[in-house]
Amino acid sequence: MHFHSRATGLPAARRTGRSGKAWLLAALLAGLVVVVPVYGLLLEAMKGSAGLWAHLFSTILPVALVDTLILLAGVGCLAALIGTTTAWMVTAYDFPGRRLLEWALLLPLAVPTYIIAYAYLDILHPIGSVQGAIRWVLGYESPRQFRLPDIRSMTGCIVLFGFVLYPYVYIPTRAMFLTQSGNLVDAARTLGVSRRAIFWHVALPMARPAVAIGVALALMETLNDVGAAEFLGVRTMTVSIYTTWITRTDLPGAAQIALALLLIVVALVGLERRARRRQRYMTDARRSRKFLATSVAPLRGMLFFAVGIMPVLLGFVAPFLYLADEAWKRYQFAGLSPRIQDEAVNTIVIATVATVVTMLLGFVVAYAARIRPGIQSTVILRLSVMGYAAPGTVVAIGVLIVLAGFDRFIDQTALDWFGVSTGLLFMGSGAAIIYALTVRFMAISAGGVEVGLSRISLSLDHASRTLGQSSAGTFRHVHLPLSKTALSAAALLVFVDCVKELPATLLLRPLNVETFATHLYGEAARGTYEEASIAALAIVAVSVLPVILLSRVGRNQARSLDEASPR
Question: 163 lies in which domain range?
């Protein structure tokens, strides 16, 4: 019996080896999909003359770089302050409304930055209802007598970004607080240390890597924005890339600014990687008892709830109610226009196709790392996540350069061989948007698949091979059924991010093709906010889906901690 098993196992091992090489080759091709636009960006940047670099350094880059760094510093500090404070409150203290805040604090993730800028530009307009009510209370009659500071400023941009992006800090920081040892807190309290001092001297130092990771993610989202910064009058490097390309029709100059922006992104990614290594070390020491929340007096509990609900009100509730009100007014006045219906179809089709392509390529990369572990698959996996760190404008320029070159080559070849012009096959068909979205979000699909596969024991792979199954058979009968939940969650996140993505869609969409995001951008740029309220509300409604998923994951994590802690 033992001999028969070995005899049948050898062909299976050979088939698995050949199949593994095929998966590795497919993963390499998928990784090149992400790398090629970066290579195209480098080639286009080198086309610019030395005088162009001098012009950029003397006129555009100084202002754009200073504005970008100020915005990053302000958003980073505000997001860290709000995210860390709220995470500690809902973890360390028990007060009325705490359960509500645990998931409500995630809601601002559902509002893209360009939508919150669009909403608050109208909410806080000098002749709007908010400032009108304030003047009525104070006894003023005209905006000339009293008006709030203009939100179209660096300060306004920092505040709005901070109240939308703080959940990126809140999520990992709260997870770190939940996993910290209750014994450390007990030891500190035994020594007479107050709860506040415990936060500053015990909890916060241990959570600093998580805070750094969250801040890095928030800053990368800030760099990706083009709509909000432009609406609010802040000339970031991302906005400069867009205006240099579209307004000045200077693609080499835009590519050169994009390379400078990539240096900032690389620095942020390096910070995040370093923090993650430190976090892994710090979380190795498992606590023996759950971190228990301390009950507080009713008055203090009300204060905690008021502080915790404020970011939710400013970052989600206020813009959502505004959008709902404006959308209802628009619907009552004119109903749903065919334009909105066409944009809904375009948005869903583009996001669905991009999600399918992204999930397929991400699965290939993650599955190759599973069945052929080693330096090669690890490098390919790292290459596949490059696009998520790059802002959408940078990815769009790289994709444009590559696909426009393919279009020219195919058109010239068709003319030479058949005397027929093929036109813009890629750029005119929407393939460029799909390509850009795939590059941007392959990291989400590959990461989600990798997490799902990591929960499947390798012993099941060995058992499948012993029974004569190839890698494809093991995938079909073992891995796919056991990782469906992780695949579905990753697909949902990719779909929602594709719906929300503005820069790549705005720059690469074919002529006369509008999505919810591009429609919103166009109306906001013209100042006709009410026309885009339905599209904005639809984007927010779709974006709530991953927030619900995150809240369920958080509740399951807390429940697991409760069950694991000794009574």
Answer: 73-233+286-335+529-567
